[in-house]
Amino acid sequence: MIKTLAAQIKEFKRDSILTPVFMILEVIMETIIPLLMASIIDDGVEAGNIHHIYVVGAWMTVAACFSLFNGIMGGKYGARASAGFARNLRKAMFEKIQTFSFANIDRFSTAGLVTRMTTDVTNIQNAYQMLLRMCMRAPASLICAMAMSFFISPQLASIYLVAVLLLGSALAFIIYKAMNYFNAAFRKYDDLNASVQENVSAIRVVKAYVREDHEIGKFTKASDNIYRMLVRAENVVTFNSPLMQLTVYSCILLISWFGAKMIVHSSLTTGQLMSLLAYCMNILMSLMMLSMVFVMLSMSVASAERISEVLNEESSLTNPENPDFAVENGDIVFDHVTFSYKKDASSPVLSGINLTIHSGETIGILGGTGSSKSSLVNLISRLYDVTEGSVLVGGKDVRTYDLETLRNQVAVVLQNNVLFSGSILDNLRWGDKNATEEECIHACKLACADEFIATFPDGYHTHIEQGGTNVSGGQKQRLCIARALLKKPKILILDDSTSAVDTATDAKIRQAFATEIPDTTKLIIAQRISSVQNADKIIVLDDGKVTGFGSHEELLATNEIYRDVYESQTSGGGDFDEKGGNA
User: Fold this and answer.
1) Of 365, 330, 336, which Cα lies nearest the Cα of 350?
2) Beta-carbon contacts of residue 326 (< 8 Å; ≥ 6 apart)
3) Quick one: pLDDT at residue 580?
């Protein structure tokens, strides 16, 4: 874990080294100042030597200024090192997530990944700054002050030693008790972020169903769980301050009492007593700082482990050693395919799939909710790997291709259409970053998107809000289809991607596909029979198995599920799930 995180310090190694150097120099100056103060009292004030007071006072000023400079520089470099470390961690995690397969993303929740990149990284950033500054400053100050105290008076310094041992043991116990609560609290942040993310992304549904109170209740519960854990932790940590105050004042009383007696017997000077009292504060404050450092570091261990999990996670999908960089055509073959999302699943999602699809064919896919239609097409672009059997594209197993090459030749318009903030042209160029405006317009005409874009005042330069909230569902679907067409793919997959457009527009889009991209293999997942009945062949899925594969006429004659769906939709409405397959 430490090696994984340390690798992200990178260009901030110099700042990470300079920070503790400046901290130690600051401590040295602070340690010298009480000695100079003792000299002023003993050799200046009590001896009536005003010149000595001026000289030593000037040196004290120089030492204080040098200490201030070192403190400022330590703060500057520490802030740069910790902020840079956090930046590199976020960047490394984001880049790692981009390599994840769907299976990897399923392992971490979306909310969990967000928590790792925000809350957990912030914890590590704060801990790293404490490590560079306080973790160097506090031990150095403690050691220097203790050494000077024993140099001045071993007898009185023994009081500090006993106090440090007692206070250190008490603080260690407090930290141990508090850490259990802190670790539990940070694990609850995933639930809180999940609640916020779900609510914000589905705010229209929440308002449409007047479920604000329900969502507020969910958020309040998640927030209260964190609150209770943190309060318990803080209730334990609050004992730090009273213990610290008790120890400080006890040491001051004991040193003053025994120190005064030693002054009377001329075994200690007044200046030395003042120095010892100053070192008393240095020693005990250093111990207090160390306790807070340990709390922060202990709190960050859970965050460090969660970040390391992401950075050390290897994608379940990797390129072969000598990948193929050319997809010959859009032929697709499913050869005895079985697929499960998890290796230990009790039953497969898909089983016994044997299909042969020729390049340029239009294939319809029908099935009830949960019949694994999307799972089937996800295997083509290798978003998941098959559990058994193989999927061939262009005559080669998809596992032999370079992933980027394969996915560039398989355009997928997903069921949940996603647009990004930026202009319409920016979104279209996700399909081809070098596409000209004319090519974008042509793709939009094929997807029947040009007609509504023309009504916008800024046309193709119209700004799309995050998530495409300023366009309708049907408009969003057509823009996503146009974006996929710009890839000029050998295989085009439409995963229920015309569900929000009317049947006339749906027919126009299908006609454009037939005339404009005849050599592209087209897979159309749909609930409407009208969307697929003119396809070359139609796949009927039921409970992860192919129950029918043929033309519209063939399936009407031979497949009971398909016939029931057709009759239900042509005799007065309904969809697949009202009659037909068992979802």
Assistant:
1) 336
2) 405
3) 41
Q: How many whole angstroms separate alpha carbon 399 and alpha carbon 327?
A: 12
Q: How far is CA 236 from CA 148, 239, 240, in A?
A: 33, 6, 8
Q: What's the token pair of residue 373?
A: 């239609």
Q: What is the dihedral of CA 423, 427, 429, 433, to 10 degrees?
A: 90
Phi, psi (deg, nearest 5) at residue 26: -65, -45
Mean pLDDT of the chain: 84
% of the chain at pLDDT higher than 70: 96
Alpha carbon distance 83, 116 (integer Å) = 16
Check residue 201 and give its pLDDT: 67
Q: Cβ atoms within 10 A of the Cβ of 415, count?
A: 14
Q: Which residues pair with 548 in a beta bridge?
A: 540
Residue 355, pLDDT > 90, answer: yes
pTM of the model: 0.68
Q: What is the DSSP string of 147-161?
A: HHHHHH-HHHHHHHH
| Closest listed residue to residue 406, CA positions, set 336, 512, 493, 518 | 493
Confidence of residue 581 (pLDDT cuts 50, 70, 90): very low
Tell me the β-bridge partners of 522: 362, 492
Q: Give CA–CA dist 34/275, Å, rounded.
A: 5
Reported as a single tens digit per residue, the pLDDT across 249-264 is 888 888 888 888 888 8
Query: Is residue 61 predicted with pLDDT exceeding 60?
Result: yes
How far is Cα of residue 170 from the mean position of the Cα atoms in its chain?
Answer: 37
CA 400 to chain centroid, in Å, comes to: 31
Could you identify the residue written with the tokens 């995050």? 466
- Taking only Cα atoms into account, the Rg of the chain, rounded to an integer number of angstroms, comes to 35
